Amino acid sequence: MRLTAYAEACAVDPGKTLGFVVGAGGGHPAGQVTVVDVPTGRVMAGGSVDGPHWSLDVPEHWPSSLYRAAFRGDGSTAAATVADGPDADAHFVVRGSGDADVLVSVPFLTWQAYNRAGEPGQGLYYAEEPTRAARVSFDRPGGGPPPQEWEHGLLRWLAGSGHRVAYCANLDLHDQPELLARHRLLVVNGHDEYWTWEMRDHVEAYVRRGGNLAIFAANTCWWQIRLEDGGRTMVCHRDAVTDPMAAADPSRVTVEWSSAPVNRPENALTGVSYRRGAGTWGEHMPKMREEAYRARFAEHWVFAGTGLRDGDEFGRGALGYETDAADFTEVGGVPRVTGRDGAPADFVILATADLRHWRHYGQGGHATMGVHRLGQGTVFTAATVNWGSALGDPVVDRITRNVFDRLGRPVPVDFELIGPAVPDAVLAACEGLLFAAADGVLRVRELCGQNLPWREIDTAPDLVALGSPREAYRGMPLGLLGVTRDGQVVYRDPVPERRDWSVLGDAPAGTVALGCVNATFFAVADGALWSRTAASLADRTGSWQVVDQAAGVVALTGLSSTLFAATADRLLSRPPVDGPAPWTDLGPAAGVRSLTGAAGWLVAGGATVRRRPAVSAAQARHSRR
């Protein structure tokens, strides 16, 4: 007698009871059940089945994890953990108590969508089959992981990683968003293709408030679905024409997130999409073992300790069977997102794989590993379903550890690398561009987190400081404002082509730094902070006045009604007032030669170009939570 079974819920709290429904093809269900902790393989419980219902009292001490209840009929000679086929394996999660740094979401929705794929009226998949189901129930056997077990490699790795990890069903993200607030890092793993509107809202809000998201997955958040019947029915028409919600609330129509009438590309959250990704299926699936990433920003913190250099290949076998990507172009041999597909302009591409030849095996495209900021939080994506299978590779292991260590533990706000520096240059940001002046040459690159090369555009005076206002005032045009070594304030239009520099007036003798904020110039000279209004400089009336002390300050900039400064090792701030005010310590700033800011970022020049969010002291302390 072969048994079938399903759990009455995808997740349960410790100390609670979880029910299972057992079938035997019309006969009386009888046999054995064994409960296994999936990441460790440890047998946790067992019992006898005698009838259509079996209950598990989950002990308080059980760790939060993914579990598998393996049911088998009487007389089975199989091993204790082997079920009577996939329909007799019932998976569930035991949730955590909330003290873990990391929350791992298990994609039960995707598992259920593929349950009975291709059977008329039973499976949500395949996408264009007219006999596919538009709604399926969790109250049926099956709905477990696919034979390839895309999720399991990372789960097993986490079991020995040393990180405190809790688990949830991805359905919990729909109706229990408070779970997210207990953890620093949410992990999406493997193949998490089907999301509700509520899941998307809750995860985006979590990241914007300062939570982090690591996506070791692909084809992520591809279809919008709805849940009905208390979360036990999954609805996905895959077609706006047949979905009755199109007439009631077009935003909830169950089509691809990027498609009309939803028009909410998943890139806004994930940075990438399967629209630009690749896939190899069926008999061609082994092709993915042949592919590798190519490092494109090897000095980024994600690659720390790997020994990689730009252009090196790594992670062979990690790519597939589906990948995600962002639309990008090459700028001086460096990838840069275009944003045409909905990817955030600030998405930083760390590695790429050219998989366009996969069009002969499924779908041709790319894979783009990357990272971006969303509000106060950070999103990392590996952009492949198969990441977990390559964790035996030391480089893949190191990247994974870097992501968990950085995003899953308290890290103070600090500068992070965005590219190579121009030696001894002073910097200014204006109109989306970053300018660097050194050795009589003016260079430019886009102001972004990508490691873009510098491009020479013009000559420049011998400058000791450079700056730009956030917006124009009378006497302070929106452009580049510098101080020459011989003490003159000069101006230039902020364009990436030749322009003349004009003299506006004198600077304090010995000036080493210049900042522009609140229609006022601020300068540092001889350990003092000087100020002068833009209007007085334009009219050539008045003079520079000492307003405060600035001992040790080597760089200065204005941003968001605040004056920021750097000493040899600290970042400081104070209000832009014409009088004494305390300097507030915002954290480390070692090696800063020049400082500028725009669009909420402080950018520091030195041996490299780095940036950090322009946050207050209170926000910097909060980041250490």
TrEMBL record:
<dbReference type="Pfam" id="PF20254">
    <property type="entry name" value="DMFA2_C"/>
</dbReference>
<feature type="domain" description="N,N-dimethylformamidase beta subunit-like C-terminal">
    <location>
        <begin position="53"/>
        <end position="392"/>
    </location>
</feature>
<dbReference type="InterPro" id="IPR046540">
    <property type="entry name" value="DMFA2_C"/>
</dbReference>
<protein>
    <recommendedName>
        <fullName>N,N-dimethylformamidase beta subunit-like C-terminal domain-containing protein</fullName>
    </recommendedName>
</protein>
